[in-house]
Amino acid sequence: MKLYMHPFSITSRPIRLFIAENGIKCDEQVIDLMTGEHHKPHYVEINPNRLVPMLEDGDFRLTESSAILKYLADKIGSPAYPKDLKERAKVNEMMDWLNTQFYRDWGYGLHYPQLFPHHKRRSDEAHAGAIDWGKQNSKFWLQVLNDHWIGPKHQYLCGDKITIADYFGISLVTLGEVIKCDFSKYPNITRWVGNMKKLKSWDKINEVFYSVAGSVKDKQFVAV
Prior knowledge:
By secondary structure, the protein is α+β, with helices and mostly antiparallel strands. Helices cover about 50% and strands about 5% of the residues.
C-alpha cells in the first residue's frame, strides 16, 4: 500500500497515526502542498480532487480521510472500528459530526483564513467578520464536544475505548494549538487530548506539525 500525504495535513495525520500505531505496512509519498504539487499533472491524473490524503492498495484508490480510516481498520480487523452494528453506528456518527458540523467552522471558519493566504476574504472587514463567525461557532461546537460527546466520564469520544473517531478527531482539534487556542474551559476535551497524546507514535507522527506551529508562535491570531 501507498499513502499520498503531507505530514502537516490535518487529514493525513490521523491516517499516519493509525498506520503507525498498528504497524501497518504502507509506503508514504509526500505530496508537497507548499509548492503546489497537488496541482501538478502527475498527481491530478490519479486524484482529480487535488487533495491529500489518498490511499493506493494495488489498483484500488481511496480518498477522504474518514473513508481511508474505516478501510484500514476493516482490513486489519481493528477493534477501533467495532463490528457491533450500534457501536459502529456511533463511531460513524461521531466522525460525520467532526467532518461536517465541527470542522466546517473550526477549520474553514477560524483557522484556515488566518493560516493560508488563499483563504483570505476580499476585504479586511469581510475577513474579520468571517473569522469572528468561525470563532463564535467554534466555541459552540467545542462546548458540545466537551459536554455531550466526551462528557465527564468518558476517556474517548465514543466511550472508554479508543476508536478511529479518536484518531480522526484529535488531528482536527489539535489544529487549535497552531493558533494558540485555550482549552482550559473544556476540561473533558483537555483530558481526551492528553489520552491521545500518550500514544507511542504521537511525537514522531506530529513532528512536522509542531515544527510548523513553532514557526508561527510569535504571530497574533484570533483564538478561542
